[in-house]
Write a structure and sequence with these properties.
Length: about 260
């Protein structure tokens, strides 16, 4: 489990158990759109609160954070992952403020939906197993969740913050475009400029990448590392995409 995912899990669970002892903190720190000017901090604090009368709310959110979060954090880095998480959660609150101002919301769902969107962006064809039985590609999972949230927001279905979910997707999309779209594309272009081979030989790059310590990587990143190195062996370094080169450079620069 990655560094910040573990700490977010601990924080959310810790607050949940605190709610059992002091139920009043839910009302004190929930996001109420009508009170946003007098309690602006609730745009953040509501993300750490969950329904104190049942365990399924926090269970599903934390399971999603556990399954999707670590790989996204490894890909983005800790600081950018936190930026994604909080931007998505805050945008969930802001969209609720704009479109459903009479609602009060709690829960990390907006932040989690942003993390799910990031996972589907980086690994769209990865299989996600619903209930451990039904396989679905990550991209289709996000599309289905978006459709369900749109339908729920339109019909008012259930006691669910549908606009917070949609806001999480919007915030996640915007953050990824800003954090990895512009700066990322510039970095990729620098890595593939004609001058690069004169600075570091092909053999030197391969040697550096081959020294990445596999044992220190998350399991999913070990698999990705092996896949890319096998691709180099089979097709040469010229077959790498900018994203694959960035992946290798990210982890080789840490050691």
């Amino acid at each position: 489990m990655s560094y910040w995912v573990l700490r977010l899990l601990i924080a959310n669970l810790g607050v949940y158990f605190l709610e059992q002892a002091v139920p009043s903190i839910v009302d004190a720190f929930a996001f109420v759109p009508a009170l946003v000017l007098s309690r602006p901090w609730t745009l953040v604090t509501h993300m750490f609160l969950h329904d104190p009368n049942g365990f399924t709310h926090i269970l599903f959110n934390m399971l999603a954070l556990y399954f999707f979060g670590s790989r996204v954090e490894e890909r983005l880095g800790g600081r950018s992952f936190l930026g994604l998480y909080f931007t998505s959660g805050i945008m969930g609150g802001l969209l609720t403020l704009a479109l459903q101002p009479e609602a009060a919301i709690i829960g990390a769902s907006g932040a989690i939906f942003g993390v799910m969107l990031a996972y589907a962006t980086f690994w769209p064809r990865d299989q996600v197993w619903i209930w451990g039985i039904f396989p679905i590609e990550a991209r289709w999972l996000v599309i289905i969740m978006t459709a369900m949230s749109l339908f729920g927001a339109r019909t008012g279905m259930g006691n669910v913050a549908h606009f917070a979910h949609l806001g999480g997707f919007v915030g996640g999309f915007a953050y990824l475009r800003l954090a990895t779209g512009r700066s990322g594309s510039r970095r990729f272009r620098r890595q593939t400029q004609p001058l690069a081979p004169r600075i570091e030989t092909t053999g030197g790059a391969i040697e550096r990448w081959s020294k990445i310590p596999r044992d220190t990587l998350h399991e999913v990143n070990r698999d990705e590392l092996d896949r890319i190195l096998d691709k180099i062996s089979a097709s040469g370094i010229g077959s790498l995409t900018p994203a694959e080169r960035e992946f290798l450079d990210r982890f080789s620069s840490r050691h």
